[in-house]
Amino acid sequence: MIIPSPNLSDPFSGNDTYFFPLIIDKPGTYILNSSYMVNGSAIHITHSDVILEGFGNILNGSAIGSGINLNNPDHAIANITIRNITIKNFETGLFIKNASAIHLDTISLTSNMRTGLCIDSSENIFMTGFSAWNTRNDSTGGNGILISGSKNITIIQSQISGNGKSGKTNAAGVMITGSPDISIIKSTISSNAGYGIKIEAGSDNFFTTDCDISANSGDGITIEASSFPEIQNCILNKNKEAGIELLKTKKPKIIGNQITSNIMGMSVSDTEGMQLSGNSLKNNKIGFDISASDIRFYDHQISYTNTIDSRILLYLNGAQDRIIGPGTNPAMVILVNASDIQVSDLVLSKNCAGVILVHSTNITLSDVTFIENGVGLRSEFETKNLTCTRLHAERNLASGYYLTNTEHFLLSHLYGQENPSGIYLRNATDGVCSNIVMTDISGLKTRLPSGITLSGCKNITITKSEFSKCTYAGLLSDTQHLNLSENVFSSNTFAGSVIVSGPVQIVQNSFIKNDGTGLVLKADQSTIRKNTFIDNQKLGLLLVQGNNNLFAENTFKNYNNYLIQDKNTINTWNVTSSGNTNQSYFSGNYWGDPTGEGFSDLCTPDPDGFCQEPYILQNDNIDYHPLSAQKTMKASSINTDLNQNCREDLQDVVMYMNKVSSGDTASLYDYSGDGRINLQDVVSLFHIIIKK
Description:
Elements: E1 22-24, E2 28-31, E3 36-37, E4 43-45, E5 50-60, E6 66-70, E7 77-88, E8 92-97, E9 99-110, E10 115-120, E11 123-128, E12 131-133, E13 143-148, E14 151-156, E15 159-161, E16 172-177, E17 182-185, E18 188-190, E19 195-199, E20 207-209, E21 212-214, E22 221-224, E23 230-232, E24 235-237, E25 242-247, E26 253-255, E27 258-260, E28 264-269, E29 275-277, E30 280-282, E31 286-291, E32 301-302, E33 307-308, E34 311-317, E35 320-324, E36 332-336, E37 339-349, E38 353-358, E39 361-371, E40 375-380, E41 383-394, E42 399-404, E43 406-417, E44 423-426, E45 429-434, E46 437-441, E47 450-455, E48 458-463, E49 466-470, E50 473-477, E51 480-485, E52 488-490, E53 495-499, E54 504-507, E55 510-512, E56 517-522, E57 527-529, E58 532-534, E59 539-545, E60 550-552, E61 555-557, E62 562-564, E63 575-576, E64 585-586, E65 590-592, H1 599-602, E66 615-618, E67 621-623, H2 650-662, H3 679-691
Helix pairs in contact: 2-3
């Protein structure tokens, strides 16, 4: 193997023979006068003041060792230039450690196994016309460029493409960790199997401009736990995750970028003091995503010059007395520390949320449609006095409506379908949900997809609403002081409602045609009155555990009306009469079945219409005065907005009559309360709507 002698006066003499690995331990200019196949490491530079000229030749390895290694374990080296060389098929193409003042010009690193270029504990490195191609490793995934514990590195007019192995989370075109003051300028980082550029903790003052960062299998750029990054005038296109992701980042500047056709345009989490201006997000599945564990992470400067699919990303921090509507036509609305804001007549889609409310007060939303967002409406950080009317949420990825730490709210005439969760209330207090329709709610079983979910809430009222066709439950709650009245829970897979805390008030609701159980209850000191449990396939009522509850004036018509799991529970199954002294009660429950062969269907009535014999559920659970067929309670199937246009009018009556006449009665309600669907219910529905 021939390489020219380190003779500064005559570097091209070429009279000496060298065997690899070649160690360059003296200053001077060295010439690679031919291409070589190398079995192991090729060249090891251990001295400062070295120029290695490749003249376009190739070092071709055997998947082990380094093509070129710049490192002296005893002391730092500096002032080294390497240019015009291709290094391929080594474990690491070019390795630099404990070195400074390094200039790399027109170097191609191709098909190396672990890393194309590895820079460790070094500084003041400048590279131009650099390329790293096709680095991949079955164990690590491989990186085009790996920079660790280094600083002041500039990459200009370079290409880092096709690196990494799919499925390896640490694979990247450029991986930067613990390395400040890194700049990437006018370069292409594309088609890498992991991230385009991944920046890990301690890599402050990262800067990139005029780069094309596209078609990477992870994020285009991801920055975590670093300060003062700047991303300017870049193209981030067709990355399979986010174009830009910021996590726990301080004071980033994101200016003038084109972020297109990624799964997510931009994702920001627990990031502080962001400046965002002049960015265009287009054709991303989710345009913009922001989340925070603390309210200070919502304190950003986001100008009106940012657009999502050519509409404004409207970020209002501290705004007051504003009306937002079709004239503004935003793609997304984020209100932080805002008050007295009205949002109406908008269609918001394909963002983490259509509307985000953060620590805001006196907010009104009306006639807004949320389609294909992560969440339709998100409210958090002690938002108060929220009124939502006539909202529509469809095909959102996580939830139609998500309210956490929200106080004093009214949700009225809300509609949702095809969301994994219809409405999710978490740590919310003093709220009313009225005239809600949630249907076709489905998703992963482990997430318990339900029409409305209440977690850790207090003082919530849900009334005159319908929850149907949910693959878990119409309602799921662990909330205290929940009031349910005049609601319909129908055709849900596991249960109409699952309630695991109390006390609760459940009055005049219908639990009908659920595939599993009408009501699953685990609560004490609760009232369950005047409800209808009809045609639930498994059970009408499952009482898991609970004492001192009152069950009265309910209608049960299921093949299995009840199951009490706790044998020691003690509850009341009648309304107490005045002056009662001996556990004699009145107004019990109706215990029938769909065939008319149940206890109450067949019992002998007394003059007041009660069965003469008590109905014994358990030793300490006895209905002393069950209702007979002469004294059935009216069914409470309240939903009357059948065409779901947020109005109750004669169009609903016509729609009901047409369905009855055609025999399509599967989704209809028993408004007359006689246990049947027929034209009498058309008359009853007409009278209900006229009275309203």
